[in-house]
Specification:
Number of strands: 0
Number of helices: 7
Shape: elongated
Largest sheet: none
Strand content: under 5%
Length: 172
């Protein structure tokens, strides 16, 4: 629940800032990025369901919907991880056209890489009937990485950047 609360607060703060600054273009870009990072993983889950019906034949409709709903907190955490820097760059109060083009290009690149990773997961599922994340976790654990610690260390700069940006806008 912390992930959902933090993610929603993160996005509401940026949306509120863009709205207060009467910058509807940034508000639309922030909202679009939010929808992309939330809906594309759901679309990939549906694709798994359609492409591999035998794997999910024992599940009832409510169980499938419950699985989709329980994926939302994970999707929100991935949005902050993958899209946090894009949101930060898109919402910095810099009015340069060149900067805006670079920020938008960076956001598109991150979105494309994220999309490729999700599509690769669907393709990987065809061969081993599980998500690639479990195998990456096992491989990194075998190499001696503490995944929880690594995730916290990776998220801290993104969290700090978000809080710093909100602080920039909220100063009197």
């Amino acid at each position: 629940m912390f992930v959902i609360g933090y993610s929603v607060c993160f996005l509401v703060a940026w949306g509120w800032i863009a709205y207060k600054r009467k910058d509807l273009v940034r508000l639309k870009q922030t909202f679009f990025l939010f929808l992309y990072f939330l809906l594309f993983p759901q679309l990939m889950r549906l694709l798994l369901l359609v492409c591999y019906p035998a794997q999910f034949s024992s599940l009832t409709g409510p169980l499938i919907l419950q699985g989709m709903w329980k994926g939302v907190p994970y999707d929100l955490s991935m949005m902050i991880l993958w899209g946090g820097m894009s949101l930060f760059l898109l919402n910095l109060p810099i009015r340069s056209v060149i900067y805006r083009c670079i920020a938008i290009a960076f956001s598109i690149l991150v979105g494309l890489v994220y999309g490729v990773v999700l599509v690769a997961d669907v393709v990987y599922f065809k061969y081993v009937f599980r998500h690639v994340g479990a195998d990456i976790f096992k491989a990194l654990s075998a190499l001696g990485h503490n995944i929880s610690k690594d995730a916290i260390e990776l998220n801290m700069p993104i969290k700090a950047l978000g809080e710093t940006e909100v602080g920039i806008y909220l100063k009197p």
